[in-house]
Amino acid sequence: MKIWYQSFVQQTLFETYFTQLKRIVAEAKDESTIVDIVGITKTGGLGKQHHYLEFLQTAEVLDNIETANEQGYDAFIIGHFTDSGLYEAREISRIPVIGLGESSMHMACMMGRHFSLIGLNRKSLSFIEERAHLYGLSSRLSPSQTMSLKNPLFLERALIDKEVMTSVIDDFMSAANKAQECSAEVVIPAGGVAMAALNAAGVHFTHGGATILNGIAAVVKTTEMAVKMDRLMLGRFTSRALHFAPPGSDELKEIRKYYGNNAYRSLDKR
Length: 270
Fold this sequence. Notes:
Layout: E1 2-7, H1 15-28, E2 34-38, H2 51-70, E3 75-79, H3 86-92, E4 97-99, H4 100-111, E5 115-119, H5 122-134, E6 145-146, H6 153-158, H7 162-181, E7 186-189, H8 192-200, E8 211-212, H9 215-232, H10 249-259
Helix pairs in contact: 1-8, 1-9, 4-9
């Protein structure tokens, strides 16, 4: 089994995070599974929570999904908590596409009755709550809380500076404890770098005993399951009815007149 793990940050800016990410993935995956971790290379990759920046980076990710299909990968992970491009990806991809945010939230629903999201800052909180509502999980979502990080690069510093790490843990635990007071049984750090930092520090529970979910491990195991289900279902893990239905052959000819022959290029392999 071969999986493409797509981070939404640039490796040169988050080198220590990538080291931790590789470690977590290696511990989570089956021995025979190969996971290739790829960062953003064409645009920015700062990890900031702005819609415009996500839009620019999502175009690169969708192109990578086409490449992953062409190169024989079995699945594609969008390793970004807002799951940017997830629905578009499922429309063009022949292989399962799994999002870090969606898989984390569904895993949390199996671990506890209610879960809460801990945003990196107030800006990110609106992003992640929108996804929970989109996935139909509003009734399972306890009031979300937020850390006070102005820049995700601060989390990269935490991975190499103990004093900064202590500050990050205190900030996160303050928000997580508030979440538990509001009935959360599972708490999700809403960002891959935050997940990696807390995992590196050995932080897995709130002071009151609520589980802190490592979504990176969750998305890897969910993706392995999706690949196995895809094989059992003869390559039809992703439904082709309605929402993720790609264009038919006649429609595709018309689309390519206006968008170019690279549009939906994975469909040529079906």
